[in-house]
Design brief:
The structure is a homodimer of 222-residue chains.
Chain A (H helix, E strand, L loop, with lengths): L2 H8 L3 E6 L4 E3 L7 E7 L2 E6 L5 E7 L7 H6 L5 E4 L3 E7 H10 L1 H27 L2 H18 L7 E3 L4 H8 L3 H13 L3 E4 L2 E4 L2 H8 L11
Antiparallel strand pairs in A: 1-7, 2-6, 3-7, 4-5, 4-6, 8-10, 9-10
Helix pairs in contact in A: 3-4, 5-6, 5-7, 5-8, 6-7
The structure holds a DNA duplex (30 and 30 nucleotides).
Chain lengths: 222, 222
DNA sequence: CGTTAATTTGAGACCATTCAATTTCGGTGG
DNA sequence: CCACCGAAATTGAATGGTCTCAAATTAACG
């Protein structure tokens, strides 16, 4: 994007909104009126099934758009929640839409953003569909680490990790109990250390091996 | 889209290509040069994990674009295969790209198409992550039926169903053996009848109940 | 420092897998 | 038209990964 594009994007009218931990930002079935950019904190998407179980569909880090798709598709098809206390920028659908109409580079950037989103969903289908518990969790940890590094939010082997074990389980299709046992097994093997909301990856190569992690699907080069 | 838009789309230079059953259309890691529209037959996307297991990520029916995302993201992040013998129209990336630049309605239609795709991936994460075998398979059958009806390819309760049980299993994260037993259980309960590549849905309401199926995620109204 | 949330542990049950063998089906050639 | 073939579907039995339920321990927070 050119400087002019960036100025136009930053110049959009927006308002700031804060959410508490676990606060609902968008509910499934609601009409969408605004577009949300995450400024600080973490967020996640989820859907509930008929017996009340929850499946987390993605996690989001600062700098990501949370609901471009909702704003085009009129009605939200999933729930969007803050993971930690967080702050977002709200932009009106119409203002963003006008900007996309007049600025090809911005249009292209948002389009790519949503295509990468889509690629991540595909990898998650594979993760919950065809990997065992250890691999699922290892893969999730690798993905979060790779994305945080790529976004410049973290750079070493130590990360803020605000997920509860129940949330890790809901993202990987496991129960909280089995998630706990699996994390212990990863710790015992010296792959990670995890406590008090801090994750250290002690052996990146081994963790990617266990998690069958190949970051091509993140399309970091685009 | 206006008539003029439609004419412009149909007027794009394209070539026809045939694939045999299980033929590879795109391989993971390959650079993308063309954009593929499925004309006849069925196709599916899949990824392979390190132990050789396969996860099917989506099925596609005639009239759907198969790889808009690949053509924007440069390198394919998954494999694309024909399910049955099929015919596709190949359009050059650049020609389609030019058309999208000049025609907002076409751009919007393709954008919506890929957003619906994305919504379907999200639902599949939920399906394999948080539903048991009966619900997973019932849900898959409901989705295929709903999409075929919506596309006008089928209209009653009887459908061409060219999937093997192994493929149903690979789409739902189950083994072929357990898929077989689960299909028998759905038959025994009078929900479906399935043989020789023909699926009859005998009790739609009961099947949607078992599969926890709500078609909002298909966004058929857009 | 008290209270609630989150993590951890144990034991038993169950859903789905594995492995192997058998039967059925669709297609092909004699 | 029938015999044959490989692929797909089906069956059985044993194994195992994950779940369930419940209780205990530890950590987070006002």
């Amino acid at each position: 994007m050119s400087d002019e594009d960036k100025r136009a994007l930053i110049g959009l009218p927006w308002s700031r909104k804060n959410y508490p931990r676990d606060g609902y930002m968008v509910r499934e079935g609601e009409p969408a009126t605004v577009c949300t950019l995450l400024i600080t904190g973490f967020a996640f998407r989820q859907k509930l099934v008929s017996d009340g179980a929850r499946q987390i569909i993605s996690f989001h880090i600062p700098g990501e758009f949370l609901d471009i798709q909702n704003s085009m598709l009129e009605v939200a098809d999933h729930n969007l929640q803050s993971l930690t206390r967080s702050t977002v920028a709200l932009v009106s659908r119409n203002a963003l839409s006008d900007l996309m109409a007049s600025r090809p580079a911005i249009r292209r950037a948002l389009w790519l953003d949503s295509l990468v989103d889509s690629s991540i969903f595909r990898e998650w289908v594979v993760n919950v569909g065809r990997r065992d518990a250890r691999a699922r969790i290892a893969h999730l940890l690798c993905e979060l680490a790779a994305r945080l590094r790529s976004a410049g939010i973290a750079d070493g082997e130590i990360f803020d990790f605000p997920l509860t074990q129940e949330q890790v389980g809901d993202a990987t299709g496991l129960t909280a109990v089995h998630t706990n046992r699996t994390l212990q097994s990863l710790r015992k093997d010296g792959l990670i250390s995890l406590s008090s909301n801090r994750l250290s990856i002690l052996d990146w190569d081994a963790l990617t091996e266990v998690g069958d992690f190949n970051e091509r699907y993140l399309h970091h080069s685009v």
